[in-house]
Design goal:
This protein is α/β, with parallel strands linked by helices and 430 residues long. 37% of the residues lie in helices and 11% in strands. The chain contains 15 helices and eleven strands. Strand 6, helix 6 and strand 7 form a beta-alpha-beta unit. Helix 4 packs parallel to helix 5, helix 5 runs parallel beside helix 6 and helix 9 packs parallel to helix 10. The chain starts with a strand and ends in a 13-residue tail after the last strand.
Amino acid sequence: MLVADDGSYTMLAADLQSAAIFRLAYLEHVFYNNGMDAISRLKLLSSQMSFEPDGERNPAAVPAATTQNGAAQPVCFTPKERDQAFVHPAQMPNGQQIMLLKTLLSSACERDCFYCPFRAGRDFRRATFKPDEFASLFGKLAQSGAAEGIFLSSGLANGGVITQDKLIDAAEILRKKHGFRGYIHLKIMPGAEKEQVFRAMQLADRISINLESPNTERLSRLAPHKVFMEELLRPLRWAEEIRRSQPAHLGWKGRWPSTVTQFVAGGADESDLELLTTTQWLHKNVRLKRAYFSAFHPIPDTPLENKAAVDPLREHRLYQASFLLRDYGFDLEDLPFANNENLPLQTDPKLAWAQMNLSETPIEINRAEKRDLLRIPGIGPKSADAILYARRQNKLYDLSALKKLGVIVERAAPYVLLNGRRPASQLSLF
């Protein structure tokens, strides 16, 4: 990478994902006048955000990553992403790929959540930025083109209201003083007030508050001083009330931001059914854009440091099931829960449903409604729409026609009929 006197730069590596070392060198150049203290804090705070998922990858369509020994990895991050600080590639709600800075305003926290690396009393190096100081740093980063968006959270200190004010101040300074019009994902703190939620929604493209657990009883096992209904769920309700009652032109760029949440899967010994019941309720009642799931892993020097880590494949199955509920017309009773109310780990839930329900009664592609097409493995919303359009022109007779429409025919073939015939014998064509 070449750095000019005016601070501009040329990226020599074609793959941004593999160019972290070049970005780090450039960031050190950009922030040289702010001193290494600022760089050290930014590096520290951004690296501590690896537990917080972001982006719009669809794990329902992407297999879980595996390590060299074959163990499943969480789908939210690749190993390279886990090791990176500063900016990293992320896909936004509109599908755009951007370079995102994911960081904390402060890692100081007064709460003592049992699972959290930032819990009060834990011995580790902490760092804090003032809102104007942070906005100035990120303004330089955005102006240089090294980052296009920001995911900004914080530890909670001096209460949720004061902490939320600082997050809002940082976003407001970025928007007004530095003229930043790019993507901002802003965290809502436990205990924030409705007026603060409203102001955050005027500044951000996305807001979120982490429920962590599916209900009050489970939350008490993870975060005994958080209040599920009043501190965590209520802000999500407020966001939906604002979207319904206030004109959209009051929001950032004339629209209200989407809302998301995160659960610590397995941290409180909850079942998949509990997590997905709450997720479905949120989709229907507060228009939650999506739920993130983070497989529990123990953090040293926390009360749960000796609790076994959750298989990351469980995280993957929860994502798949949540997309079935949100986008594929499935209900909770359709999902293949075992007797322990968990999803099977070895089979994705859509395939498991098809094996139980479609093996003997395959679906006729040329007559099925969209709801039924979406039940077929290998067919998603886009390919279902393509099928509906294509068959208005001509009947579909073979798997090659389906493949051209975006269907994963190897998955779909056992569960479909094409003009009254099973297409299994046609698989040899591929």
